[in-house]
Amino acid sequence: MVLTQFDHLWRGSLYLELRGERVTDVIARLAAEGVPLHHVRVGGRRATLVVALGDFWTLYRVCRRSGVRLRILERSGLPFLWRRAWRRPSFLAGVGLFLAILWTAGSMVWTVDVRGADEDVRAQVLQAAQDVGLYPGAWRRRLPGPDVLQAAILARVPALAWAGVKVEGARAEVEVVPKVPDVKPEPVEPRNIVAGKPAVIIRVLATRGEVVVKPGQVVSPGQVLISGSLAEGTKQVPAAGHAFAEVWYTSRVEVKLEVTQQELTGRSVTKKYLDLAGAGVPVWGFAALPYPASVQRQEETDWRVGPFRLPVQLRTVRVYEVNARTWTQSVEAAKQTALRLAAQDVVGRMGADGRVLGQTVLQAQVAHGKLYATVMTRTEEDIGVPGRIPAAPRVAARAGEPQG
User: Contact 49/40 with Cβ under 8 angstroms?
Assistant: First the structure.
């Protein structure tokens, strides 16, 4: 019969050390008799293993017949915890008091959070919630229903368009949506659309104003693309539109030819903890980690009694052994990596609506185990930005005319 970790926790288990010439014979004999053994480690005349508490006397009998000495390294499980606790009545009383405090704390609301509102509206929502009985220290059982709370908050705060109340455990959350005030359009001053960076024009789409550049034209920063000055300057409008152009970026990238990667070996150990009031109490897997390098994956239970989430949860941590593997990549593979790194660099520098048209490695050199590459990346993006319309130059007065 194969015992699960829960069986070991419930019935108790022993972490033992065996010493003697016939250690391997003892392990083989126990396996033949059907005694489940876990975490067996054998080295010469010494072995360590974990056995269920109920199988201890069978192991003890086999060890005596084979002349193998045994030593208990660690005891774990509820039988040992109960035995130690029974000898300390004050400890049991403290545990009972602690659980009573946890139950009392879990039956009350300790925090009330408001989401979706500024400070002024948040203060009004908190006051409205307090008026209807929702405040830190309120008993959860005495709270009105969510619909009643929502209607009461909306009635007391006219600035809200919607309110939702959710009580989970000791935390209450009020999510609100403020009413949108009447928005008055602000007057827009006349302006041009100018180039924000050097580029080659692909196409210009003007919704207002006059296009003054052509496809294929090279423009520099500040050059007017869509003019807001119409009819030879007699009329000015706020120019609007999009100017799509081809922009070049140069990136200098270093790529290591020797690559190190962490790989899983397939070996793993499991540890279990009881998360109680923010502290993790180990209940399984007490031995030190046998791996020089490892990664962890965690899973936590979601034990509930109705809508109330219990303050005690079981967290399982699985530790996987990893080994570092190193290999040397080719220069071509390193160039592809350099192109990807250059593209990532350009994405952070170009506009949100831009896209990469192509890439070219201008220069590549291998030195000191690295590839040093200069990459040119071509993108298409909207380079138009608002710019002011310069004032018209004053015409000088002709000779002989009186000047104001």
Answer: yes
